[in-house]
Amino acid sequence: MITSPWGSLSTIRVRLTAALAAALLPVLILGAIQSSMAFRREGEIVRQNLAASAERSAATARARIEAADILLETLAPASVGLQCAQRLAEVTQRIPGYSNLIRFDRRGRVACAAHDVPSDPARAERPWFQQLAEGDNLVVTRDPGAVYGREPVLLAAVRSTDPKVGFDGALVAVISLQSLAPRLADRSLPDEAEVALADGQGDYMNLTDREAFPALPRDWRARADAKGSVVWYAEDRRGQRRVYSAAPLVGDDLYVILSARSQGLFSWARLNPLTGLLFPILAFVLALLAVLVVTERVVIRWIAYLQRIAALYARGRLTVRPVQAEQAPPEIRDLAETLEQMADAIVGRDATLRDNLAQKDALMREIHHRVKNNLQVISSLLNMQQRALTDPAARAAMSDTRQRITALALIYRALYQGPDLKKVDLRPFLEELTAQLISAEALHGALVKTEMHVDALVIDPDRLAPLALFAVEAITNAQKHAFAGRGGTLTVTFKVRGDEAELDISDDGQSSNDVLTASGVGRTLMTAFARQLRGRTELVRNETGGVTVRLVFPTPGLENTVKPEDQSGNQAAA
Question: How many CB atoms are closer than 10 A to CB 107?
Fold first, then answer.
């Protein structure tokens, strides 16, 4: 029976696929581990680059502030005079990052400036101005006490002195916080990086994308001051996971915050297909497909072909030859040759068996023919002996014996003349047996007509013999008691009713009631024959007033039927 190639876990396809999958699984796992390590390594690189960028940005900002100190000290002697404002304006134009350059006197008043300066009457009392007055050479502050620009700015102030009076005011550089923040175009920054500036309290003062910066963690400032920079992971306002880095920009008052997108393993694998899981998975799938294709082309299709050939052999078509197997691998060709040799051997064996069966059939027919001839010889001898007897009882007994032998001879003739030595068609046999018994007495008595109603049934000789002898006894009794001197009609009826068969032999004579209760030799023989058939016999009065002899027995061929649930052995295994 040809079933689905994938219908069972024990098929070659499934087993080879499972074996290859198990063999390649370590490669796939190794590829996944390597991809995970590469992902972590790249994530660590992103963290390091981000921390380095934050520290580098802080260092750049501090360098700009130090450069402002040098610039202011350089400009100090030249910032007094009629062209002070013009010179300071030229410097702001040539050096980017400075929003304004201002010269204050010792009372905090504006001496000159590159651009407009907001009014601040209390400037001389501001902390940063007081620090310069007390002797600090450089003061950097984010809170000058007045608004010095349209955007957040940082003031870098240097102390100006006069040998005669000492403290002589300050020279201030107004630096835009935006100029201190790192540029997004910087190639050292990771992709999709964002920049922000925050004060020491964690409030953002300047940022490139507000949605990318959530509230800062509690300990970020302490860690940044202790280590120079700090890196952490958090979700932005959109719910996307990002990596953040912070570094102090100006003391503990200003910090630069950098942010980059933190990719998950699968999103990273999608963005890095060739260096991620694609190669291991692709190799895994291609190897499986290659094995399946090779298995199908080299093994499976030839096995299926030989399976079809074997199915044809099972149906008896032994002349078919697996000629297509000549294109198969050597192992398959050897198997095909074996099947072909097996078919040839079966054909030769079948021919021998048919010859032997034909010889056996001929011998059995000859044996049946000779047995029939011998029984006819015995019947002829008994007939000669019967004519020599003068005692009527002896003549009747001899006639009964001769009729029984004739019935047996008729069985053997039906066997060797029929198409099957083991089966006999019951209908013609009963017709011929009845005709012989009636014709044998037709010359010595009144005319007896016969009516036959026989169902078709093929029966074996073992059951036919007691059935035929039972019919002989019943017909003989009817001739003796019902038709003697008057004739009549003999009706022979055989019906198959399911699991039981019934043979009725009826006459229309006027037999006495003694016939129904008699226990002679004929009645004894009929009872014995019924027992041989595992049946029962009845003797009853029929509707015409005559007697009906009935034999009921299991229908041949049905009494030995095995129920499906009782099957065992080879029958069940088939």
Answer: 9
Tokens of 386: 């019967």
Residue 113 is inside which H or E element, if any? strand 110-113
For tokens 């020279």, the residue is: 171
Contact 322, 305 (CB under 8 A): yes
- Sequence-distant (6+) residues with CB within 8 A of 52 are 188
Run of H or E residues at 34: helix 12-75
- Six token digits for residue 51: 């921390």
Please write the tens of the pLDDT for every residue from 405-461: 887 888 878 777 777 777 888 888 888 888 888 887 666 666 888 899 999 888 888
484 token code pair: 């003697």
Contact 230, 245 (CB under 8 A): yes
d(CA 160, CA 375): 160
CA-CA distance, 552 to 530, in Å (whole number)? 8
DSSP assignment of 367-414, as one string? HHHHHHHHHHHHHHHHHHHHHH---HHHHHHHHHHHHHHHHHHHHHHH
Residue in 170, 158, 174 with CA at minimum distance from that of residue 108: 170
Is the separation of the CB atoms in 276 and 38 below 8 Å?
Answer: yes
pLDDT of residue 553: 92
The per-residue pLDDT for range 94-148, each reduced to its tens digit, is 877 788 888 888 888 888 888 888 888 888 898 888 988 898 888 888 778 888 8
Q: How far apart are CA 54 and CA 223, in angstroms?
A: 14
Distances (CA, A) of 93 to 90, 115, 183, 537: 5, 11, 20, 140
Instruction: Please tell me what DSSP assigns to residue 561.
Output: P
CA distance 278 to 285: 10
Q: What pTM was computed for the model?
A: 0.43
Contact 253, 142 (CB under 8 A): yes
Taken as a whole, the chain contains a residue count of 574
Place of tokens 């006069």: 162
Tell me the Cα Rg of the chain.
Answer: 62
Mean pLDDT of the chain: 78
Q: Could you tell me if residue 23 is left (phi over 0), alpha (psi between -120 and 50 degrees) or otherwise beta?
A: alpha
Closest CA to 180 of 95, 58, 54: 58
| Pairwise CA distance, residues 65 & 250, whole Å | 9
Residue pair 493/454 in contact by the 8 Å Cβ criterion: yes
14 close to 8: Cβ distance less than 8 angstroms: yes
Q: What is the DSSP letter of 327?
A: G
The structure tokens 């226990």 sit at 519
d(CA 91, CA 100): 9
pLDDT at 309 over 80: yes
Which residues are bridge partners to 136 per DSSP?
A: none
| Cβ–Cβ < 8 Å for 252, 221 | yes
In tens, the pLDDT along 189-233 reads 666 778 888 877 788 777 778 888 888 888 888 888 887 778 888
Measured between its terminal Cα atoms, the distance across the chain in Å is: 11
- Tell how strand 166-176 and strand 98-104 pair up: antiparallel
